[in-house]
Amino acid sequence: MPSVIQTAGLRKTYQLAEPVHALRKVDITIEQGEFVAIMGASGSGKSTLMNIIGCLDRPTEGSYQLDGTEVSGLDRNQRADIRNQKIGFVFQGFNLLARTSALANVELPLVYQRTRRFKNSAKRAAECLERVGLKDRMDHHPSQLSGGQQQRVAIARALVNQPALILADEPTGNLDTKTSLDIMGLFQELNAEGVTILIVTHEPEISHYTKRCIEMRDGLVVADKQIENRRDAREDLANFTSVTSL
Amino acid sequence: MKLLKLLDVARQSLLKNKTRSALTMFGIIIGVAAVIVMMAMGTGAQKNIEERISAMGTNLLMIRNGTNQRGGISRGAGSMRSLTMEDADAIRAEADLVEAVSPTVSVSGQVIGAGQNWFTQTIGVHYDYLFNRSWDLFEGNMFSDSELRARSKVAVLGGTVAENLFPDQSPIGLSIRIRNVPFKIIGVLDKKGQSNFGRDQDDVILIPITTAMFRLSGGRKWVNDIYASAISTDTAEAAEEQVTEILRRKHKLVDGQDNDFNIRTQTELTEMFTSTTQALTQLLMWIAFVSLVVGGVGVMNIMLVSVTERTREIGVRVSVGARGSDIMIQFLIEAVALSLSGGMIGVLLSWGVANFMQNSQGMTMIIESWVVAAALGVSVSIGLIFGLFPAYKAAQLDPIDALRHE
Ligand SMILES: Nc1ncnc2c1ncn2[C@@H]1O[C@H](COP(=O)(O)OP(=O)(O)O)[C@@H](O)[C@H]1O
Ligand SMILES: [Mg+2]
User: In angstroms, what CA-CA distances link B290 with A136, B33, B390?
Assistant: First the structure.
């Protein structure tokens, strides 16, 4: 089975007044079933890497194989199709369509599918909402949902096309501690079911719930280690709730 | 992406901004309604003119005196005095392509009846005049051949004259004085209404032409007009030629000499009036077209605002796999939905306005189905044309910038 992500000599240079080297030489390999956190100071190149891995952007140089396919040279439309079939995004700001039901939001990627993988897209979207525990909120609009619930809808949307990879850029950045734990618990569950997840975070606590942590500085990978003493978000949430309810 | 989905997305996003959608449609609504109302007016006026001209008489040939041109100065239409009773007799005898020939002599002046005064036009005519003009009698009779020969002092009144001089009674058998000569009223004409020139055609009195020439005009020789009817529409042109040949011979005009008369056929009259209404319709169409373009610019403006406002939405759609073309089609469909809805409301509005004008203003309004179809087609085109640029802009957005957009 091919690696989900395999990059070699990935570079990204922004040509401004003087060139900005956002990524300088990134080689990473991520296998199916991994749960990886990318950490690093602001400006270290995390988002740039995420955008390239998510096929929203192209590297200036280097190769990137997603699920065994070289994608660094694809054009706009091909990248759109790759995103549609292989990638699920979760954003810090949820990025749900306003005044649109949770179900329609989750269905959105299937609206653009060209392969007809999922014939009954509404049924598939409903399954995913059920999976994230929002079976009874399908008709609610984002404004009628809490932040945690909105992020669950976003996660359901990321799951709907059975992607090879879920990419989450600061998924807990807008959430309080309790809700963050809840969302990390959901990610852990999904990962246990075999979903490959890559999250960007600057909070070290969050990385403790993942399996592997990649640290970046100035466009370079400076550390890449497995997490020892991995924490269980559901347990921490239970403890957290009992402490606060005292 | 399925069309049905796209239409649904467009419907939802237009409904999300009801007020703005409505305001945007306003320009299109007014433009489309204006186009249809103008066309309805134009078509109605055209039909009116056709009806009035055919009411002048079927296959009518109007023979008039020529115009004097001395030193290049026109002395007014029909200023020559070339047509005579003998001309009319010759046409009647020789032209087998015409029937019912009636020369006319106009005498204007004061008319007194039942103690009332009325200033009107008295026309001396042949009794065939009624056939030429497709005119029927409301009551009484037209004068007879013997009355014509006898230069009898009998009169047939137009509806307006009868109403003004004898408001509460039938004038048949009563008498009137025309230029102080007493006449016996033997008939009243049906009402014809206004002519194309806006003159009241019923403000007239018909008397035998012989009487007019010898008892009212001191034995004048020339006549004003000669009315004749071609025996069929197809031969109207041949009839015109035949009459021309007879008159040139009677007037002893040699080759190269201009006619001292002119002949108008009904077809020519129709064309004359049609061209004026067409010019008017065209002008109005241009105004309507400009208002449609203004409406289109409104659509473009709103679509541009919408693209900016929904940058994040576009980013989200692109991030989950929408291609540039999907985004483009989405915005184009929204623009077309907007302008087409405006167009349809415009059609309804124009229908209401046309009905109102017809019922309250008595205007003839005719909405032809092709005009409605064309107006809707134009609405769709406006949506497409003016939606293209905003849609293109939306499709070109960089997904990363779009997702980051506040
Ligand atoms: N579109 C861009 N144009 C120019 N410079 C950019 C652009 N995006 C990112 N950068 C620069 O690249 C570097 C890495 O940025 P980024 O990947 O966003 O870092 P992080 O997400 O780790 O905070 C920064 O120095 C940033 O200023
Ligand atoms: Mg970042």
Answer: 53, 13, 21
Chain B residue with minimum CA distance to A109: B320
Asked whether residue A143 is domain-assigned, the answer is yes
The sign one gets for the Cα dihedral B331, B333, B334, B340 is positive
Cα dist. A241→A10, A134, A182, A206, B356 in Å? Answer: 43, 21, 11, 17, 72
Per-residue tokens: B179: 């230029």
**Could you give the C-alpha distances from A39 to A3, A197, B53, in angstroms and in order?**
21, 14, 91
Q: Tell me if A72 is assigned to some domain.
A: no
Q: What are phi and psi of A204, to 5 degrees?
A: -60, -35
Is the residue at A24 inside a domain? no
- 3-class state of residue B337 by DSSP: helix
pLDDT over 60 at B71, yes or no: no
- Here the tokens at position B39 are 């066309």
* Distance from the alpha carbon of residue A104 to the mean position of ligand 2, in angstroms: 28
Quick one: tokens of B283?
């002008």
CATH of the domain at A213: 3.40.50.300
**Partner B contacted by A150 (CB < 8 A):** no
- Contact criterion met (CB below 8 Å) for B343 and B375: yes
Whether A144 maps to a domain, the answer reads yes
* Among B201, B206, B212, B160, CA closest to B185: B206
Phi (first) and psi of residue A90, to 5 degrees: -130, 125
pLDDT digits (tens, 9 = 90+) for B155-183: 999 999 988 888 888 889 988 999 889 99
Distance from CA of B322 to the nearest CA of A (A): 6
Question: Does residue B42 carry a pLDDT above 80?
Answer: yes
Determine which of A58, A92, A99, A112 to mutate to test the interface with B (most B C-beta atoms within 10 Å). A112
Counting from 1 in the atom list of ligand 1, the atom nearest the Cα of A49 is 17
- Residue A49 structural domain: 33-61+82-244
Q: For residue A92, what is the DSSP state?
A: T
> What is the pTM assigned to this prediction?
0.72
d(CA B307, CA B330): 11
Domain count, chain A: 1
Q: Is A146 within 8 Å of chain B by CB?
A: no
Nearest CA in chain A to B399: A56
Instruction: Check if A240 contacts B (Cβ < 8 Å).
Output: no
Nearest atom of ligand 1 to the alpha carbon of A45: 17
